[in-house]
Design a protein that fits this description.
By secondary structure, the protein is an alpha/beta fold. The protein folds into three domains: about 5-90, Rossmann fold; about 95-300, UDP-N-acetylmuramoyl-L-alanine:D-glutamate ligase (3-Layer(aba) Sandwich), CATH 3.40.1190; about 310-440, Protein-Tyrosine Phosphatase, Chain A, CATH 3.90.190.20. Helices cover about 35% and strands about 20% of the residues. It contains 17 helices and 20 strands. It has helices spanning about 10-25, 40-45, 60, 80-85, 95-100, 115-125, 140-150, 160-165, 190-200, 220-225, 270-285, 290-300, 330-335, 355-365, 380-385, 395-405, 430-440; strands spanning about 5-10, 25-30, 50-55, 65-70, 90, 105-110, 130-135, 155, 175, 210-215, 230-240, 245-250, 250-255, 260-265, 310-315, 320, 345, 365-375, 390-395, 415. The strands form three sheets. Strands 7-8-6-9-10-11-12-13-14 form a nine-stranded mixed β-sheet. A six-stranded mixed β-sheet has the order 15-16-20-17-18-19, with helices on both faces. Helix 1 (about 10-25) links the parallel strand 1 and strand 2 (about 25-30). Helix 13 packs parallel to helix 14 (about 355-365). It is globular and about 65 Å long.
Length: about 450
């Protein structure tokens, strides 16, 4: 009898997993506790895949041979508890897709910089003329791409939630950018649980695979000895023994497998965090055998990622920057660190157990005012209350942008870098960023 596969979550990853499972010949059912978007319903119908929304019908789920779970569903969700009690194996869409492709996997994780680095690696591989797909947290579902016609390489951005349900999947090149506190609400407020999830990217690596990582991250250095991994390719700001990339006298050096260098000012992305992202991307391409001329040119021509330090407009001498993707404190730290002018900072949203002490010094040094944007800003008002800065409490993007316009002086920057998830007032960080941009462009 063919195995029954139940997919929980009818979004991009769930829909892709269902289509691949159907193509292989499994009996498939999709169940979403929320509502399924129209385009995904149409896609499921087109492939004759039964689905339900706004409920989980237990008798249609608990008879599964295997469950493919959307990364957003926590293990504590009532249906997940019942699936665990029934002893049904639970995997991620990436794990499932990995079984049915021979493509090389370049996988990127880290608390910050994932999307930029993933997009940059994809850009380099495309510029090299390779048959490459973009998947994971961005791009199209990996499972859908495998179902529709395979590639030679996939560049896959992996969140800790995706890594949680991956077991046999192998990253031929694993990139770990950094580890700082994030999503602690999903990990029992225990940092080690989150660290362990990130380092799952190394499971199943073979000696001829590559592990690209930030050499100066204290957590990665502490944990590395516990794990088997491929050949090490660390990157560092300063020249040191064994670094696969480093900077020296305004140049960026790549040392192996093919040594080459380029002027730092040639890099299209600016700021220290983007230097690390460029190093990680350059090493990954170098390891894959892409010509140094192609890597150099692609690092020059990359245009950046939407909602990540994205310049929106200059109005009355004030620069407006959309960094809505900064959903944790460390992301905001990087954004503030790269500011060259006094900044009106917009913070707030759904707090994930944030500790704002990390940005306290930079807020004092760089900010001329703070605008809070959230359903409930009391934690922010309490924390920043003693800083002696103007603080404005807002509960809609319209009000927030209006106050920013009234507050910022010519020569300053208005930075939306919220530190928080968007789910209190918006559907996603993308929607939050888009509305911010639309309103700024109307000023």
């Amino acid at each position: 009898m063919e195995k029954r596969i139940v997919v929980l979550g009818g979004g991009e990853s769930g829909c892709g997993a269902a289509i691949l499972a159907r193509k292989i010949g499994f009996e498939v059912f999709v169940s979403d506790f929320g509502s399924i978007a129209g385009k995904y319903k149409a896609l499921l119908d087109e492939h004759n895949i039964p689905w339900e929304e706004k409920k989980h019908t237990e008798e249609l789920i608990l008879n599964a041979g295997e469950v493919i779970k959307s990364p957003g569903i926590p293990a504590e969700a009532p249906i997940m508890v019942k699936i665990a009690e029934a002893g049904i194996p639970v995997i991620s869409e990436i794990e499932f897709a990995g079984r049915y492709t021979k493509a090389k996997m370049i996988c990127i994780t880290g608390s910050n910089g994932k999307t930029t680095t993933t997009s940059l690696i994809y850009h380099i591989f495309r510029e090299a003329g390779l048959k490459v797909g973009l998947a994971g947290n961005i791009g199209k579902s990996l499972a859908l791409q495998v179902a529709e016609g395979d590639k030679d390489y996939y560049i896959v951005e992996l969140s800790s939630f995706q890594l949680d349900n991956m077991y046999e999947f192998r990253a031929n090149v694993a990139v770990l950018l950094n580890i700082t506190p994030d999503h602690l609400d999903r990990y029992g407020y225990n940092m080690q649980n989150y660290v362990d999830a990130k380092l799952r990217i190394l499971q199943n690596q073979q000696p001829d695979d590559a592990f690209v990582y930030w050499n100066d991250d204290p957590i990665i250095n502490r944990e590395l000895a516990k794990y088997k991994h491929g050949k090490l390719y660390p990157f560092a700001e300063q020249k040191h023994e064994g670094a696969a990339a480093y900077t020296h006298e305004e140049k960026l050096f790549f040392t192996e497998p093919v040594p080459f260098n380029m002027e730092l000012e040639e890099l299209s992305l600016t700021g220290k965090h983007n230097l690390y992202n460029s190093m990680a991307a350059g090493i990954s391409a170098n390891v894959a055998g892409i010509r140094k001329e192609t890597i150099r040119e692609a690092l020059r021509s990359f245009s950046g990622v939407e909602h990540r330090l994205e310049k929106v407009a200059k109005v009355n001498g004030v620069e407006y920057i959309n960094d809505s993707k900064a959903t944790n404190v460390n992301s905001c730290w990087y954004a503030l660190q790269s500011m060259k002018t006094k900044t009106v900072l917009i913070l707030g949203g759904k707090d994930k157990g944030n500790d704002y002490n990390e940005i306290a010094g930079l807020v004092r040094e760089k900010c001329s005012a703070l605008i809070f944007l959230g359903a409930d800003n009391s934690k922010l008002l309490d924390f920043f209350g003693g800083f002696g800065l103007p603080m404005i409490d807002t509960h809609s993007m319209e009000e927030c942008v209006k106050k920013a316009y009234e507050t910022a002086k010519s020569g300053e920057t208005v930075l939306l870098s919220p530190c928080c998830a968007s789910f209190d007032l918006f559907k996603s960080y993308e929607e939050r960023g888009r509305i911010f941009k639309e309103l700024v462009c109307k000023l």
